[in-house]
Design brief:
Layout lengths: L9 H6 L6 H10 L9 E3 L20 E3 L2 H13 L5 H11 L3 H45 L18 H27 L23 E2 L2 E2 L7 H20 L5 E4 L2 E4 L1 H7 L12 E11 L3 H9 L1 H7 L4 E11 L10 E8 L9 E13 L2 E8 L11 E3 L2 E8 L3 E12 L10 H6 L5 H18 L6 E2 L9 H22 L8 E2 L1 H4 L3 E8 L8 E12 L3 H9 L4 H4 L9 E7 L7 E6 L8 E10 L2 E10 H8 L12 E7 L11 E12 L8 H25 L2
Antiparallel strand pairs: 1-2, 3-4, 5-6, 6-7, 7-14, 8-9, 9-10, 10-11, 11-13, 12-14, 13-14, 15-19, 16-17, 17-18, 18-24, 19-20, 20-21, 21-22, 22-23, 23-24
Helix pairs in contact: 4-5, 6-7, 9-10
Amino acid sequence: MSLPNYMEPVDDVNNNNNGETDNNENENNNNMNGGASFGDEEFDSENQEYGNTQDPRAAKRKRYHRHTQQQIQEMENFFKECPHPDDNQRKELSRQLGLDHLQIKFWFQNKRTQNKNHQERHENLQLREENTRLRADNHHFREGLANASCPNCGGPTAVGEMSFEEHHLLLENAKLTEEIRQLSEVAKYTGKAVMRYPVLPTPNQAPPFEPPMITNGSLGSVKEADKPLLIELAVGAMSELIALAQMNEPLWKEGVHGMILDLNEYTRNLQNGLGPKPVGFRTEASRETAIVFMRHMEIVHRLMDVNLWSTMFAGMVGRAITHDTLLTGRQGNLDGTIHLMTAEFQVLSPLVSNRECYFVRYCKQHGEGLWGVVDISIDHLIPNLEPKCLRRPSGCLIQDMPNRVSRVTWVEHVEVDDGGELHAMFKHLLNSGQALGANRWLSALDRQCERLAIMMAPNIPSIEPGGQITVTNNAKQSLLELVERMSRGFFDGVTTSNADIWMNLGGYTGDSVKVTTRTSLNDPGRPEGLILCAAHSFWVPAPPTTVFDYLRDENNRVNWDVLFLGGNPQKLTHIFNGRDNRNCVSLLRSPNTSQSEMMMIEKSSTEPAASFLVYAPVSVPSMEKVLNGGDPKYVPLLPSGFAILPDGTAQPGKAGGSLVNVAFQMLVDSYPSGSLTFSSVSTIESLILAAANKIKACFTQQTP
C-alpha cells in the first residue's frame, strides 16, 4: 500500500527538527485533492526512519495503526490551545501519550491542513451563494435598464450600448438644445437676433408696450403679449453690463471715491437702450471690485430672492416686491431667470426722498463659475408715470474663486431727477456717488458676508467684562439675530418711505425734525400700540470715523443719552462680529437703580461708506429668555440710533465732515387706535434735539 504524497515530509523532518515551515504546509495543501483525512492514523516510523530506502519494497510494507480515542482527545485539546507546538512540546506529548515525536508532528500538521481545507470549502460555498445572488440582481437591473432613458439627454442608458464619449456628446447636445430653446423663446418675443444691444424708443415715443396696471403702487402680472420688449431689454442690459465691467480707460476714469464713468465715451461706445438722458436728470455712474467671503452661488441666490436681497441691503433697499417672473431658469437653476420688480432705494436720512424704480432683473451664467445679475428700468415705458429715477444697466459680475470667496465687480448707473428738492446738506454726498454708488453697494455686501460668516462660526469671539454673565455660543447667535432685526427697525425709522406720511416739526424750534406714526398690532417683534418715530439730520465738522468712535465709546454715553445720565453704562458682554473690532454687539446695564429691570442691547457697525450705532432697551426677563435659548423674534424692540455718512467733500489729503442722522422711537399709546398728543410730540422732539445739540457742541469745541 503506497502512502499519499502529503504523508511524506521525510526530507523536511530530517532538515528541520524544531518546527514546520509554511512551505511544508502549503505542499500538503496542494497535494490534498479532497480525499479522506489521515489525521487519526499514522504509519510506523521505524520503516521510514532517517530516509531508510535501501529496500524498494519497504515502502509497500509500511504498517499503519490507528491512535486511541484517548490519544486523539488529548491531541485535540492541545491543538485548541496551541495548533503549532514546538519541538519540546511535541516531545512532552509523545512521552505522555506513548507516541513517537514524528507521529505527534505529522498529526498536528495534518490537523492544520484538515482545518484549512474545511474553512476553504465553507468560504467557497459562501462565495458561490453570493455570486448567484449578484447574477440574479445583475439580470434584474439589466432588464430595468433595457428601456430606460437619460433624464438629461433623453438617450438610451442600457449598459454596454453607449460609450463614454457618446454619452458625453448626448449630454452636451442636450445642453445646447436647451440654450437654443431659450434663445428661440427670446427671439420669438423680440422677432430678431439678440447679439446687439437693442435700440429702444425714447421716452417721448410711443412704445409698443401695454404695461400692467399700477394699483396702490404695485404692478400686476405682465401679459404674454407684453413680454417681448421687457425680455429684449434685459438681454441687451446684460450685454452692456459685461462691457461696462470689462472695459477700462477711457470709458472709466479714476475718481476720488473709485472709478467714474465718462459719459461722452459711454455715448460713443455703447448704444443707449433707454435713449438719451431725460432733461433735468443727473447721472450717478461708478464701478468697484472686491473679494467677498461668500460662495458665488449664494450671492446669486440672495440677489434673485427679493426678501433676502432687501434684508442683505437693509440700509439701502426699502420696500421691494417681485411682481412677475418673465422667464424661468433652465434645468431648475437661476440661469436665464428674469423678474419684474419694484424697489425703493434709500439714503438714511429723512431729508432725502426715496428713489422708487420699476425694473427687470436678469440672471445669466456666462461660464464656469461666472454669473451676472443686471437691472434695467422700465419706468419710461409706463404711461402716466413720471419717473424720478431710471436704472440704466446696473448690477454685478460674480466670479467663483478658491477658499469659499468670490470676486465681485459692481456697476451702478442711474439717472435721477431731484426736482429741486435735494437738500443742500446732502448735495455733495449724492453728487459724489457715495450715497448709493458702487462702492456703497459693494461695501455693504462685504460687511454682510462677513457678518453671516461670523454667525455660522462654531465659536463666536466675545468678552464678558467682570465675568458677571456667561454667554454660550447659541446665545451669541441669538443675540446677533436680534440685533439684525433691530437694525432693520432702525432703518425703517430713519428714512422717508413713500408708504409713510412724515410731518415736519420745524415750526416749533426752527430745526428740521420729522415725525410719523405707525401702529403695531399682532407683531411679536414690536410692542403693541401707537408708535411715534422722529428723525433728524445734522452736520458735524469731523470725519465719520471720529464721530463713530465718539458715539460708540460708553464713557461718552452720559454726554448725550438721557437713559444714562446717572453714570456710564456697565458692559455685560461684548461680542465681535467682524474683522474690525468696532463691529460688535454689546449688552449694557444702566447704573441707575430705577432702571434695574431694563437692559440696553447695542450694535456698532462700520464700513467704508457708512457707520451705524443702533440700540434698544430690552426688559431683563426678555433678555434672559434669549440668553437661555429663546426665540429672538418674540422680543419687542423700539430701536433708536445714529447713521453716520460722509458729507461728500473729502479730497486727497483733506478730510471732510460727517452727516449724522438720528432716529428715536417711542410708544405713545398702548392701543393701536390711540391718538397722538402734543405732549408726546414735544417730548420726542426735545430728546432728539438735545442729543443732536450735545454732539454738535462737542465737535464744534474741538474744531480749531
